[in-house]
Amino acid sequence: MNGLSWADLAGLSGHFMLLSLVAIGGAITTASDMQRYVVAEHGWITDAQFTSAIAIAQAAPGPNVLFVAVIGWNVAGVAGMLATLVGTMLPSTLLVLAVSRWAARRRESLAVRAFATGMAPLTLGLLAATGWVLAEPFVRAPDRRIGALALMGVTIAVMLKTRLSPIWLVALGAAVGALGGI
Fold first, then answer.
1. 3-class SS of residue 125
2. pTM of structure
3. CA dist 56 to 20, 60, 66, Å?
4. CB–CB of 99/111 below 8 Å?
């Protein structure tokens, strides 16, 4: 179990269950709190391991929720992977099944339309928090600060002003990093 007790695994799974219920826009929107829990609060993995887990899972083919399994694996091997993945998938899947059936029957009601419209700002805020957690180690490093902030500025400007696929910006970031820029 990589040193984690059953109580720690239950706590890890329970925390990820709670996060799955507020993951409006996908599991990635709660990455900032995942980082707080597994890195800052418990010290089970390092900031670099956390960031690498997200990068590896996002680069791999398949659903983007795979980063949760990689984080769990880094924390406690197979047991950690199961704890985080089941914790993330089970509550949100059951909730979505129930709510989608209910909302489908009431999709034209003012309440359902208002709820759907109100979720957009929440999703953007959660994504911004995740972006900051991933960028913060680079922004804090004096030798990487200017490059990191410039790359963030370019990314934001391109996403706001164009319809360019975000994969090209990920490729740009990878190229800059590979060349030693950030």
1. helix
2. 0.65
3. 21, 6, 9
4. no
